[in-house]
Amino acid sequence: MRSTPAIEVIPTGAALGGELRGIDLRSVDDESFRAIYRAWLDHAVVLVRDQHLSDTDLIAFSRRFGTLDHAPIQENGRRFVDGHPEIYVVSNVVENGVAIGSLGAGEAVWHTDMSYLPDPPKASALYALEVPTHGGDTYFCTMYGAWNALPEDLRARAATLRVKHDGTYNSGGYVRAGITPTDDPRTAPGTLHPLVCVHPESGRPHLYLGRRRNAWLEGLALDESNALLDRIWEAATADSLTWRHHWRAGDLVLWDNRCVMHRRDAFDPGTRRVMHRTQIKG
Ligand code: SIN
Question: Please, are residues 197 and 214 in contact by the beta-carbon 8 Å criterion?
Answer without folding.
Answer: no
